[in-house]
Write a structure and sequence with these properties.
The chain is an alpha/beta fold. 29% of the residues lie in helices and 27% in strands. The chain has one domain.
């Protein structure tokens, strides 16, 4: 009886070449990765640029006490301490707001405190106009740094700095005042978060009144 031999196909072993993606697929995957990276870079919030120090510098003479003793006319008090205003910084509240010009400054000063222009003529402070500021706290922090009061933030010296917001003609502005008294005091840095607080902190009194 003839013997039948079954022909068995030899097993095939897959080569590692069979698992390597084709060049076309590799190109597609690389393109997707590049596009995803570009999208993430575009969507990621951009960090705010550092402030231009040249636009916020406050150049004043701090080595000599410049109190109000020799001034004539109305006097300014910060928490009932007579002071002379050495420097004033004005900035609009909000991004991309225009910086006020000279004519606007007069109206803004009177809106801040009636009689302020008379004080300006008497105290002759240096004026600095800063670009728009986003918050009271951010403005105050920058202002206090640039004010660079002597000692420990002015405490125990005649110097103090006051910063906060106020309203003028339906617009919000930020103001910073560098002041100097005749005597040493503990005023230091004062931040005004609400416009109503100015009534308790900053006052203009007619000469001869108490």
């Amino acid at each position: 009886m003839p013997v039948l031999f079954l022909q068995v196909e030899p097993e095939t072993t897959a080569s590692w070449f069979d698992y390597v993606p084709s060049p076309v697929l590799l190109g597609v995957l690389a393109g997707i990765a590049v596009l995803a990276y570009a999208a993430l870079r575009w969507l990621r919030p951009k960090p705010a640029p550092p402030p231009d120090r040249s636009s916020t510098r406050i150049d004043i003479e701090r080595g000599v006490t410049q109190g109000p003793r020799t001034l004539i006319g109305p006097r300014v008090e910060v928490y009932h301490v007579p002071v002379r205003i050495i420097a004033i910084v004005i900035a609009p509240a909000g991004r991309n707001r225009p910086i006020p010009d000279e004519d606007q400054l007069r109206k803004i000063m009177e809106a801040f405190a009636p009689g302020m222009m008379q004080i300006v003529r008497s105290h002759r402070p240096d004026f600095f106009r800063w670009p728009g500021q986003l918050s009271v706290s951010g403005f105050a922090q920058s202002f206090f740094v640039e004010a660079a009061l002597p000692g420990e933030k002015g405490a125990g010296t005649p110097w103090c700095a006051v910063a906060g917001r106020f309203d003028s003609g339906g617009q919000q502005y930020l103001i910073g005042l560098v002041c100097c008294a005749d005597e040493e005091n503990s005023l230091s840095h004062i931040q005004v978060d609400r416009s109503q607080q100015w009534l308790d902190i900053f006052r203009i009194r007619e000469a001869g009144t108490k």
